[in-house]
Write the structure tokens for this entry.
Amino acid sequence: RSRQPGQRNAFLAQLSKSETAAGVDMFALRKDGSEFQVEISFSPIESMDGIYTSAAIRDVTSRKKIEQQLKETTDRLVMATNASFIGVWDYDVVNNKLMWDDSMYLLYGIDKRSFEGVYQAWQKSVHPDDLEAASREVELALAGTKDFDTEFRVVWPDGSVHFIKSK
């Protein structure tokens, strides 16, 4: 059973075409009449008697609940960072790639399209007098010796100097 008739009709159409499908989300009914979410995967099996369908149905209620909780937590984090003007970043050391959220570009006065996304691009933004200490803080954090928790100045493309507190 499906809450959306269109979803059910698409499922039945795919099933009638004897096509393979994986991960079709639908709702099912328990014996007591309560609904629960399932994921259905099916594929055709040809035999001398005709075409049959093999299906696997998995209760995904727990997974869906966890996904919803994660989405709600993520939404709250986004609201909090936007309201407090906090930037969120991640550094992929192996690939030398910095990933920034939109607030980081604002904090550094950098246009998103011109940011190279590599560690060296960050270094170019740090005030020359603070670069050695800020880089040392990064190295200590990467070595696991110290949590990354520092303050430094950045120079925006217009030449203005701004202070950054970074964790």
Q: What stands out?
A: The mean pLDDT is 85.
